[in-house]
Structure formats: C-alpha cells, structure tokens
Amino acid sequence: MSSDPLHRLSADLESAIAAAMDVHDDPPIGLRPVEPGTGGRSYLVAFEGPAFLCLRDDMQPETSRARVDEIARVALVVESAEHLIDPDALRALAPAVLGLVPWQADIAVAIDALRRAGVCAGELADWREDPLRVIASLVALDDAIACQDRARAAYASFVGATEPLVAKQDELAPDFVRALGAVESAAAAAGLADALGGVVAAGMDAIEEGADEMTAAHITPLR
C-alpha cells in the first residue's frame, strides 16, 4: 500500500462509497471523512432525502446515536469554519503592503507587522487549500484557528502602529491615505476583524440543531 497520504485517503473514500452503497441503493451525494479526536476516523455519507449514514473506520454502519451525533457536529463545525476562510482574500493581504513602501521610513514598524500578518494569512490560505482538508478534523481546525489568531495579532500591531496617523490624516498625502484604506479593506475581506474560533462558537446553536437533524435522518438503526 502506498505511503502517500492522498493515495491512502482516495482508497479509503472509494471503500466508504462502496460500503455505503451496500447499505443504501441510491448513490451518495456527499462523503466526508471525520476525525473528531476520539475513536478514530468515521465517514459521514449523505444521500438524497436528505438521509445520512455514518460508517465506522471498519466501513460498518455506526450503531451509537451519541457517536453519530458527535460526527455530525464535528463535520458541521469544520464546514462552518471553512466557509469563513477565503484563500484568495487572505493572499491579497500581503500585496497590500506594497502601497505603503514609499512611506517605509516613517512607518517601518507598522509595515513589518503587516508583512507578518500577510505571511500568517498566506499560511491559513495554504491550510484551507490543502487536499487533506477533505478530512473534517478538530485538531486541524485548531491549527487554523491558531494561524488566524497570529494573523489577527500581527494586524492588530499594524493598526496600533498606525493609530497616531488617524488624528492627522488631513495632513497626509492622498496616496498614503488610499494605501492605508486599501490595507484596511484587504484585512476586512480576509476576515481578520473577528476571531475564527469566536465566530464558529457563536453559531453553535445552529450547528447543534443541524447535527440533531442529521442524526434523526440516519438510515440504519441507532441506539
């Protein structure tokens, strides 16, 4: 067997699809491997209906209602976080520093902080686009949250370093003001205004409700 993680994952997904079709006649319309951090990997399969099937890592249907609920909740938590991570917007933050280069001598500390924010934002974009993100993993999500926290902290340092300019913006060169505005817009588009973990936590009521609905629509008996 190949040691390549993507090759192994592809083989596992094919096995999960085959196992799901042994249980349910209709073809799956969605499949997500889920690693909640306890009990190994499971596979959450969606069918028209909607209907769902949770497979254990031995490709047998899960029988525990609590486990299915846990898997559904983790899948929805990760999905909600992924929707908040825009790789293109994150990567657009780094080029925004170029507009400030003419004023490097005046705001060197701020530019250095913005560069750090751009690096961290790029790392988060890489995280989101990693093919292994098909696995809904709480451990991996913690990594993303930590990465976004670093980006936000670096951007906060930039904001703090440029705060004194606000009081005298009428005295600044128009190009400088526009460059600062472009940075602010890029940071907002990149999602640095709010902590990723906090936004996800704020939506937990909807996630819990969605998990309950998925568990109720499980196509094999649960206990």
Q: Spans with pLDDT under 50 lasting ≥5 residues?
A: none
> Mind describing the biggest β-sheet?
4 strands, mixed
Spatial strand sequence of the major β-sheet: 3-2-1-4
Number of H/I helices: 8
Beta-strand portion reads 5-15%
Quantity of strands, as a count: 4
What is the chain-wise order of helices and strands?
HEEEHHHEHHHH
- For the residues shown, what is the average pLDDT? 94
Structural class: alpha+beta
Distance between the termini: 36 Å
Taken from the alpha-carbon principal axes, the silhouette is elongated
Helix content: 55-70%
General description of the model:
The longest helix is centred in the last third of the chain and has 29 residues, at 138-166. The protein has 8 helices and 4 strands, in the order H-E-E-E-H-H-H-E-H-H-H-H. Helix 2 packs across helix 8 (204-216) and helix 4 (108-129) runs antiparallel to helix 5. The protein has a 4-stranded mixed sheet, sandwiched between helices. Helix content is 58%, strand content 9%. By secondary structure, the protein is an alpha+beta fold. The radius of gyration is 22 Å and the shape is elongated. The model has no long low-confidence stretch (mean pLDDT 94).
Write the layout of secondary structure elements.
Blueprint lengths: L4 H19 L6 E6 L6 E6 L3 E5 L9 H19 L3 H5 L16 H22 L6 E2 H29 L7 H16 L6 H7 L1 H13 L7
Parallel strand pairs: 1-4
Antiparallel strand pairs: 1-2, 2-3
Helix pairs in contact: 2-8, 4-5
